[in-house]
Amino acid sequence: MGSIYKKGRDGYYYYQTYTFNPESGKKNKRIFHSLSTKSLDEAKKKKIILDKKYEKLSQRDILNNKRFFLASAITLLILTFYFSKTLYYSLKETSIQEYTVHKIEEKNTQAQKAIIISNQKKKSEVPKEDLKKNESLFFKSKIENTPNYTIERVQNISSSLKQVKIFLTVEDSISSESIKLLCESITNEYSSFSNIIISVYDNSENGIALAQGIKSKLSLEDEIKSWIAFFTYNVKEGSFFDDTPSKFLRNN
């Protein structure tokens, strides 16, 4: 079931829901668009129609996804049987002596490769803490007059419609104006997309987990506390910024 809410800046009602995502195999593909009405009653009627529409689409996508995996499994079984049979007749035609020599040489070669790979890993091994630190520094903002931030996750909602959703974390003490400027800067960096959604969380442990899509161990209050800003940009409607997005969580 979807939900509707009213934007304070224009007075229109908007609709959002989540449908089945073939890429992730979960119901996490977000649908978000305007209902083009300021009437609550009319918005509720349109919501009922849209709920039925997207529920049918989601069920269809789930069915298609199951058919795809079933077809893939059958194809894999056929290929496995074919190559197993081919290998069997190939080995049958090989003499016992040649087969034994081949296996000995193969084991020696694999042992040599294992030694080389082990030595390479020891030379290039880097502590996990340093890797995490480097990944975090990679996403630090180089734009002047904007706060340091970390892009935790980027979700391409729809390649055909050029929609993208970005999840990032910043310090909780950053002003709303600075966060808005940061979102506008990121929008310019993703100018190839016509519809951009940015969710901003604080850089606490809970905020980082939410930005990375990990919600199983967090309560609603944790999400309300850590979600500090919401920004959208659409080629037709322009941009929208909200520094109190948690009110939508309380209403839903």
What is the fold's blueprint, element by element?
Layout: E1 3-6, E2 13-21, E3 26-34, H1 40-92, H2 96-124, H3 128-138, E4 150-158, E5 163-170, H4 176-189, E6 195-202, H5 205-211, H6 220-226, E7 227-234, E8 238-242, H7 246-251
Parallel strand pairs: 5-6
Antiparallel strand pairs: 1-2, 2-3, 4-5, 6-7, 7-8
Written overview of the protein:
- This protein is of the alpha+beta class and 252 residues long.
- The protein folds into three domains: 3-69, no CATH class; 94-124; 130-251, Diaminopimelate Epimerase, Chain A, domain 1 (Roll), CATH 3.10.310.
- It is 50% helix and 24% strand.
- The protein has seven helices and eight strands; from the N terminus they run βββαααββαβααββα.
- The chain has helices spanning 40-92, 96-124, 128-138, 176-189, 205-211, 220-226, 246-251; strands at 3-6, 13-21, 26-34, 150-158, 163-170, 195-202, 227-234, 238-242.
- The longest helix is centred in the N-terminal third of the chain and has 53 residues, at 40-92.
- It is elongated.
Provide tags for this entry.
252 residues; alpha+beta; Diaminopimelate Epimerase, Chain A, domain 1; 3 domains; five-stranded mixed beta sheet; three-stranded antiparallel beta sheet; 7 helices; 8 strands; 50% helix; 24% strand
